[in-house]
Amino acid sequence: MKPKLLLFSIVIFAFFLRVLFINSSPPALYGDELTITLDVYSIIKTGNDQLGNFLPLTFNMSAGRPAGYVYGSIPFVAIFGPTALGVRALSILSGIGIIILLYLFGRKLFSEKVGLMAAAVGAISPWEISLSRGGFEAHFALFLAFLGTYLFILARKKPMLYIFSALSFGLTLHTYLTYKVAILLFLPLLFWYQDIIKKVIQENKKPFLVGIFVFIILGVLSFSQTFLAGSENRFFNINIFSQSSVKDKIEQKINFERQITKLPRPLAKYFHNKPIEYTKVFIENYLQNFSVDFLILHGDRNPRHNMATTGGIYFVELMLIFIGLATFWYKERRTILFLVFWLILAPIPTAIVDTPHALRSAFMLPPLILLSAAGLVTVFNYKNKLFAGLILLFFVIQFIFFIQKLYFLAPKEYSNFWSYSARLASEIAQENKDKYNYVILSDRIDNMEFAYPVYAKIDPRLVISQNNERALLGDNRVKRFDNVYIGYIPETQIEKFINSLDGSVFYIGSPGDKRFLTNPEIINDLDGLEALVLEKRL
Predict the structure, then answer these.
(1) pLDDT at residue 36 tops 60
(2) Which of 255, 285, 315 is the last residue of a domain?
(3) How many CB atoms lie within 10 A of CB 56?
(4) Fewer C-beta within 10 Å: the chain N or C terminus?
């Protein structure tokens, strides 16, 4: 019972870390969370997304969002409503599921001790905690991919699990864009690790083939959404081959080098061309995923999915990973090779898109934690109490610094990354809408058009109607929810527009609007900087 009790304690502690201050840290819902919430809430109430499409597999309000996280969040938004907890609950539970899988995976591949250590390291992992505290599709996809891997390994003795493994991998393809590439790269490695041809197909051919069929069906459906329904438009717009800045830089470099090279022109094109330059960009992006800056010091520097702007793993883990590799190389060489190649393959989809990214590169996390746990067990087995004590001390110190920044500094320092001004504007509008004939919210406030319907819990039917056909206020097309209007008004025309309305007006705009208002009132963000400007006319 002792391992189970330890695992239970680890899970409870991990759950506490992930739900503590969940409504205030992060301090608001950012754009993707808002649109997910609107789609989920609309599906629950009407069966349609916020654009009026019936049970779609691609949600087009967010440039082609796969359906996985939206449908997975339905039970939680149904229980908690269109709130932070409602949209983040699936991610929180994904984190708990990943911790349990780390235990099961570590126990299966190495030992009970490694499994428990992996769960413990996962519980306090900066990368894992940050992923758990936001409504991130990538985190749910990571859980599904990890679950599919574990079920596939178990299926050696329980062949029917091949079907459930295929289902999990297939759902992963419908959840986050980079996993469409990552899974296709990872499956051959998993087949090699399980020695599919010799030991699986011959013995358990039927369930394995059924699993393959299930995966193909879900895969075809996923890729058809990509190419026919506009799913993953963001991927097509932001990869290194479509970014205009990268294109221009490469073209300028090639033209310059071809002009100044001493090689004959017919030969120059073989040394100075786009394939070579794009390969360099890809390699540079790829290698940055293994840099000390990304893994240890600063992460990807985006406070949304790297909430404390720290590295994804603790500094002490770098040493533990190498210890784990060295210790288990002779004992579990095939397993070590499997984890190392998993780690090598995981960042490839990220490198195609851009530099390291805590969401797109998250598939690196399981092998990193498992290798770190293997090293930690080696340290404790060595029976050098001083060395083991120092390792634990380093963990504690780094964990304390991470936690203090996550809970007490980041929510204020990075509030603008979470569209806090839109939440604040929505709350002010709700408080004052009965006092004025018109409450006008400028869409220059980041994500304002999505924030107000969420925070005000607007009837999804009204949201659908306004998304498809906006109301007219003066000469401006706006979204209208009772006497609250959201839309664009040219900065130079704000004062004139307010005065043209017949009745009392409460205008809420972005800080830049104050130059064009007579009596502006400034509201600050949590970081002390200007967030909103208010103008009232009775």
Answers:
(1) yes
(2) 285
(3) 19
(4) N
Each residue's pLDDT tens digit, 215-260: 999 999 988 887 765 555 666 666 777 777 888 888 899 888 888 9
Q: Which residues pair with 438 in a beta bridge?
A: 505
Same domain assignment for residues 405 and 435: no
Q: What is the DSSP string of 323-350?
A: HHHHHHTTTSHHHHHHHHHHHHHTTHHH
106 and 248 assigned to the same domain: no
For the segment 100-141, what is each residue's pLDDT rounded down to a tens digit?
Answer: 999 999 999 999 999 999 999 999 999 999 999 999 999 999
Q: How many separate domains does the chain show?
A: 3
Asked whether residue 304 falls in the same domain as residue 399, the answer is yes
pTM score: 0.94
Are 173 and 179 in contact, with CB atoms under 8 Å apart? Answer: yes
Burial class (CB within 10 angstroms; exposed 0-12, middle 13-18, buried 19+) of 245: exposed
User: Are residues 229 and 64 in contact, defined by beta-carbon separation less than 8 angstroms?
Assistant: yes
Q: Is the pLDDT of residue 395 over 60?
A: yes
Which strands, in side-by-side order, build the sheet including 530-537? 471-473, 476-481, 484-487, 438-442, 505-509, 530-537, 521-524
CA distances from 470 to 60, 451, 452, 467, 476 (A): 18, 17, 15, 6, 9
Closest CA to 451 of 23, 21, 32, 19: 32
**pLDDT of 75 above 60:** yes
